[in-house]
Amino acid sequence: MNKLMTVALAGAVALGAAGAAEADTKIAVINLPQIISELPQTKAADARLKSQFSSRVKEVERLADQGKALQDKLTRDGGSMSQADYTKNQRKLAEVSSEYRLKAQALEEDRRRALKTENDKILTKIQAAIEKIAKDKHFDIVLSGDNVAYAVDSINISDQVIQIVSKDK
After folding, report:
1. Sign of dihedral through CA atoms 27, 33, 37, 41?
2. Which of 14, 29, 64, 139 could link 151 by a cystine bridge, Cβ 3.0 to 4.6 Å?
């Protein structure tokens, strides 16, 4: 009985595979990292974010430099300072360190949020372009290239996606 089930199952699988081959499924592949890196919108978003956060980055860098200078001063001159000066410099270092941590954390969170917003906008445009190409060229499936072991270049539609999204500024 077990042999009969195995033979029946193997036959069903073979028939299913033959049916799928007859269906002529049209498949396309995209290279999402390539698409994102080559889009002018990505470069524009990077420039916008850099400009948007540049003053805050400079402030965080200034605090880091100030903290390092205070730490160096305490290390270098700590033994020759009066107890009052040493305590005053330690407190100042603690204040600067605390301010640095707060501002650096807030900056990182805001940058991450802004980057996600920009990426979401770009990915929405990419998805719309993929869907347009798939409908126009009657593709049944579009796979992301980083999940495909091998694909011929003729089914890669990444350049077409880049062209469509690049026009949509």
Report:
1. positive
2. 29
Cβ-Cβ contacts under 8 Å for 93 (sequence gap 6 or more): 67, 70, 71, 74
Residues written for the chain: 169
Is residue 54 a contact partner of residue 148, using CB atoms and an 8 Å limit? no
- The conformation of residue 169, written as its DSSP 8-state character, comes to -
Span 31-78, pLDDT tens digits: 999 999 999 999 999 999 999 999 999 999 999 999 999 999 999 988
User: What is the model's pTM?
Assistant: 0.72
Domain architecture of the chain: domains with CATH = 2-167 (3.30.910.20)
The answer to whether 97 touches 70, Cβ cutoff 8 Å, is no
Query: CB of 127 within 8 A of CB of 83?
Result: no
